[in-house]
Structures are given as C-alpha cells and as structure tokens.
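Journal club prep — side note

Before the paper discussion, L.F. wants everyone to see what a predicted structure for a comparable chain looks like in token form. Sequence:
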Amino acid sequence: MEKLIITSAFLLLMGYTSAQKYSSKTGKVTFEASVPLFEDIYARDDNNVVVLNTDNGEMASVSSVKNFHFKTKLMEEHFNESYAETAKYPKTTFKGKIANFDIAKLTATPQKYTIQGTLNFHGADKAITSATTVYTRDGKIYMQGGFVAKPADYKVTIPKMVTKKIAENVNVEYNYILIKQ
C-alpha cells in the first residue's frame, strides 16, 4: 500500500513538473464601483499571484483582499471591515480555463480569448466569463481583460444609506505579465 501511495504521488508530481507553467507574483487587478456625482470607488492590487498552465489553458489566481488599495485610507478601512470582511475572508481566488488556448499559436499580435471559471470572494463562488487578450513577447505571456461582478452575488451587504453611492455592477480588470517557470 505504501509503495502504491509513493508511486501515485511520484506520477502526479511528474505530471505537474512536465507541464509548461507561466506565472507572476505582480499581477495587477483593479475594481471600480463608482456612481456619477459621488466619490470614485476604485481600488488596485499590484500583488496578484497568477499561474497559467500552457499545456491546457488552465489558470488560477489569488489576491490577499487587504492588498487592494484605495485613494483614501478611510474608504480602504470601510471596504476591509464592513464590506469585504477581510478578517473573516482574507483571500479572493479565481480558477478557470482559457478556451481554445494553444501556446504554439501565440504571437506578438494580441489575440482574443474567453476565460471561464469560478471567482471566490467573501466566501461565495460565482461562475465568471471574461474576455481576455493574450500575446507573447520576449519569452513572456501578456494577458489583460476584465469582467463584471455584482456585490450581491458574493453576499456583500451594502447599507441602505450608501447604496446609491456604490454601483450595482463592479468592473474588474486584470493585467498580467507571466514568466516561464
């Protein structure tokens, strides 16, 4: 039995090590939930971690929610304590796949792809579809795109006194420069 476990673990790791992986620890993710005539609600995380398996187009990313920074500390504090509840839900993750991805077809000319996967935020999972542009240059893979998320889909409670100041649809954008591992 012990030999079977060791053999299975070895074969599993061999599969991972033979896969072509590209990654970044400095991916940029922003979200914007502004409403006209009210203060801009915009935050950015410059430390999003992302991994892309170029053999099959599977990808995953993770952000520490506290890494999202706003232009005012008070807004950041309210976001972390009242909305995102970062003490309880410290990370947001995405796991998905780039449809029809083929690294052999990547060039310096940006190409459009669709990513489908699951975003986990505030303890809730929601299926996401994202339009993305991917290209390669100097041995790196560049990827940028976005999608729309709704706070209600992630069980984020917005007090009635500020509901008119926060957009129902949050625009999320990402920009990655991935390096071969």
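L.F.'s comment for the group: Helices lie at 2-18, 73-83. Keep this in mind when we get to the figures.
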